[in-house]
Recover the amino acids of this structure.
C-alpha cells in the first residue's frame, strides 16, 4: 500500500509570511495527525482528526495555526503569520480503525525554516 | 498527563556491540508502545509495536520489551552496525488514539 504523502519536503520563509503544508494519508485510514518536531525533541501532537472532525487540538496555537481535513481524506496545515520558533519538521501520520493493533504510519515530513 | 522519557539522550558505541535503549512512561494506562527510527531529515519508520498485553516483540536484531506495571520499555539491538546510526523514538498510545513521544536517543555506531 502507498505510504503517507506530504508536500513540500522543504520550505524556507521569512517571519510573518504564511505557509501551508499538505498531507494525503493512507487510503481508508480514518485518523490523521499533525505533529511538530523541533530539532532535538520528540514529535508533539498539534491536531488529530477522526474523519472530518477534530478530536484533539489542545496544543495547536490557534492564533496562528489552522488545519482542515477535506472530505475526510487530505489535510492541510497552515501557519499565518509564521514566527522564528515555528522552524521545525511537520509530520503527518495516519492510522486505521485497527490502529491500536497495527500502529501508525508517518510521512517523510516537511522541514520548515523561518528566517 | 502522560510523560515519556528516554535515556540516554545520546549514545556512541563501537560496531559489533550489543546495546540497550531505555524508555519510561508515567501513566501505565496505555494500549501499546511503539519504537520508531528516524534518520536525519527524514520521517519516522516503525520498528516494533508491543501491545499492552504483551511482554516483548522481536524483529531481526531488534528486541523490545514492555513492563507496563513499572512504566518501562527497552529496545535491545544486537551486534550493532554503522547503518543502525539514527535517532530512536518510543511512543505510547493512550485513549482516543493519542500517541505521546519521548525525546529520542541519538545513536552513533562507530566503525
Amino acid at each position: 500500500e502507498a505510504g503517507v504523502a506530504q508536500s513540500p519536503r522543504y520550505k524556507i520563509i521569512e517571519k510573518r509570511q504564511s505557509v501551508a503544508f499538505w498531507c494525503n494519508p493512507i487510503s481508508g485510514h480514518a485518523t490523521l495527525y499533525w505533529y511538530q518536531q523541533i530539532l532535538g525533541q520528540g514529535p508533539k501532537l498539534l491536531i488529530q482528526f477522526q474523519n472530518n472532525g477534530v478530536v484533539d487540538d489542545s496544543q495547536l496555537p490557534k492564533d496562528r495555526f489552522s488545519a482542515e481535513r477535506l472530505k475526510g481524506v487530505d489535510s492541510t496545515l497552515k501557519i499565518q503569520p509564521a514566527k522564528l520558533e515555528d522552524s521545525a519538521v511537520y509530520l503527518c501520520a495516519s492510522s486505521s480503525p485497527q490502529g491500536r493493533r497495527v500502529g501508525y504510519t508517518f510521512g517523510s515530513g516537511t522541514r520548515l525554516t523561518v528566517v | 498527563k502522560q510523560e515519556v522519557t528516554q535515556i540516554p539522550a545520546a549514545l556512541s558505541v563501537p560496531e559489533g556491540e550489543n546495546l540497550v535503549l531505555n524508555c519510561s512512561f508515567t501513566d501505565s494506562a496505555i494500549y501499546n508502545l511503539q519504537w520508531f527510527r528516524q534518520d536525519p531529515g527524514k520521517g519516522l519508520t516503525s520498528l516494533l509495536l508491543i501491545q499492552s498485553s504483551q511482554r516483548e516483540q522481536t524483529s531481526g536484531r531488534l528486541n523490545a520489551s514492555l513492563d507496563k506495571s513499572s512504566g518501562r520499555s527497552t529496545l535491545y539491538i544486537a551486534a550493532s552496525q554503522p547503518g543502525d546510526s539514527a535517532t530512536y523514538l518510543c511512543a505510547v498510545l493512550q485513549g482516543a488514539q493519542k500517541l505521546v513521544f519521548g525525546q529520542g536517543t541519538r545513536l552513533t555506531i562507530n566503525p
Notes: Chain B has a mean pLDDT of 94. Chain B has no helices and eleven strands. Chain B touches chain A through 26 residues (CB under 8 Å).
